[in-house]
């Protein structure tokens, strides 16, 4: 169900738990589906011994994709007109992620109702891992 | 550099949606998708990035018969000087998508890429951060722009000590 302009208010929020325990296997799944096989995301030996990180970490685009589920669950299928994020912190295996959309504006553009959202995903420590904006078409 | 043609396939959308943890049937069940507002399977919002699969030269995929910078016998399969360059130490700082329409399986998209803005700023721990935008536009078979993707990459440069 798409959102309705008459039922959504600036300041409304929608929150979704994305994962309780991000697995290395899900990161591998994302590598396979996206085609981004950077060893930093799946190859423990390269990542620790050559790149000197404590362990592999998620693609930023995996976190953006997971966060996108929250956005589309909120605004409805096929309603997005814009979605963008900044990657502010790495996401590690074992992280728990929670995504929140907040309504910044409900507006009208050429007769089309639109909602502007702030999008934020945090880890188990409350640290922001991605933050950004989304805009979607909504019903009047 | 990017794929020139991106065939949008139902199985690819299903695998991509699984990978991002999205159980929405619109991504894997054509019958259920028929009852949704779009009326058919559509691509999830970040699926467009998976056009990398169709880029023959994508540098983050091992090439058949060529050395790969990930581990095998050794922690890296290429000389160390090459791992610090395009080998993946540049980071993805930001990604934006503008959707003019959402695409469905069976379509083939044509990609056009161009560089966007670039800028520099001083990093918190010293060293210059170089940001650069890369813009990819996805066109459908009738030549209509369907999606514009803007990626921002950041690269750190060591501070060169002057005397």
Structure characterization notes:
The complex is a heterodimer of chains A (140) and B (163). Chain A has three helices and five strands. Chain A is of the alpha+beta class and 140 residues long. Chain A has a single domain, classed as Roll (Thiol Ester Dehydrase, Chain A). In chain A, strand 3 (97-109) and strand 4 form a beta hairpin. The radius of gyration of chain A is 17 Å and the shape is elongated. Chain B has one domain (5-157): Hotdog Thioesterase (Thiol Ester Dehydrase, Chain A, Roll). In chain B, strands 1-3-4-5-2 form a five-stranded antiparallel beta sheet, with no helix packed on it. Mean pLDDT of chain B is 89; it is low at 82-88 and 159-163. The interface between A and B is large, with 47 and 48 residues. Strand 2 of chain A pairs antiparallel with strand 2 of chain B, so a sheet runs across the interface.
Strand content of chain A: 35-45%
Strand order of the largest sheet of chain B: 1-3-4-5-2
**Main beta sheet of chain A: strand number and arrangement?**
5 strands, antiparallel
Total helix count of chain B?
Answer: 3
CATH topology of chain A: Thiol Ester Dehydrase, Chain A
Task: Look at the helices and sheets of chain B and give the structural class.
Answer: mainly beta
In CATH, the architecture of chain B is Roll
Which radius of gyration of chain A do the C-alpha atoms yield?
17 Å
User: Which spans of chain B have pLDDT < 50 for at least 5 consecutive residues?
Assistant: 82-88, 159-163
What is the CATH superfamily of chain A?
A: Hotdog Thioesterase
Distance between the termini of chain B: 39 Å
Largest sheet of chain B: 5 strands, antiparallel
Strand content of chain B: 25-35%
**Order of strands across the biggest sheet of chain A?**
1-3-4-5-2
Helix content of chain A: 10-25%
Order of helices and strands of chain B: EHHHEEEE
Element order of chain A: H for helix, E for strand: EHHHEEEE
Q: How many helices of chain A in DSSP terms?
A: 3
Overall, the morphology of chain A is elongated
Low-confidence stretches of chain A: none
Count of folded domains of chain A: 1
């Amino acid at each position: 169900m798409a959102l309705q302009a008459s039922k959504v208010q600036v300041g409304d929020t929608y929150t979704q738990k994305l994962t309780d325990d991000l697995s290395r296997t899900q990161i591998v799944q994302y590598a396979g589906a996206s085609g981004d096989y950077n060893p930093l995301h799946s190859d423990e030996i390269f990542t620790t011994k050559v790149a000197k990180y404590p362990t592999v970490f998620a693609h930023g685009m995996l976190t953006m994709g997971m966060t996108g589920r929250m956005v589309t669950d909120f605004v409805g299928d096929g309603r997005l007109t814009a979605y963008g994020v900044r990657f502010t912190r790495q996401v590690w295996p074992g992280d728990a992620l929670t995504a929140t959309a907040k309504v910044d504006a409900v507006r009208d553009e050429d007769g089309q109702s639109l909602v502007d959202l702030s999008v934020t995903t945090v880890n188990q420590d409350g640290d922001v891992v991605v933050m950004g904006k989304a805009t979607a078409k909504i019903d009047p | 550099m990017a794929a020139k043609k991106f065939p949008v396939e139902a199985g690819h959308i299903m695998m991509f949606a699984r990978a991002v943890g999205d159980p929405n049937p619109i991504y894997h069940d054509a019958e259920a998708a028929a009852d949704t507002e779009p009326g058919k399977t559509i691509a999830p919002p970040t699926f467009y990035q998976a056009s990398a699969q169709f880029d023959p030269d994508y540098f983050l995929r091992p090439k058949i018969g060529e050395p790969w910078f990930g581990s095998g016998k050794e922690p890296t399969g290429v000389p160390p000087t090459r791992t610090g360059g395009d080998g993946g130490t540049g980071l993805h700082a930001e990604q934006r998508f503008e959707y003019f329409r959402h695409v469905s399986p069976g379509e083939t998209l044509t990609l056009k890429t161009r560089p966007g803005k670039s800028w520099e700023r001083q990093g918190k721990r010293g060293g210059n951060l170089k940001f650069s935008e890369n813009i990819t536009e996805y066109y459908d078979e009738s030549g209509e722009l369907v999606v514009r993707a803007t990626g921002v990459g950041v690269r750190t440069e060591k501070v060169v000590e002057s005397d």
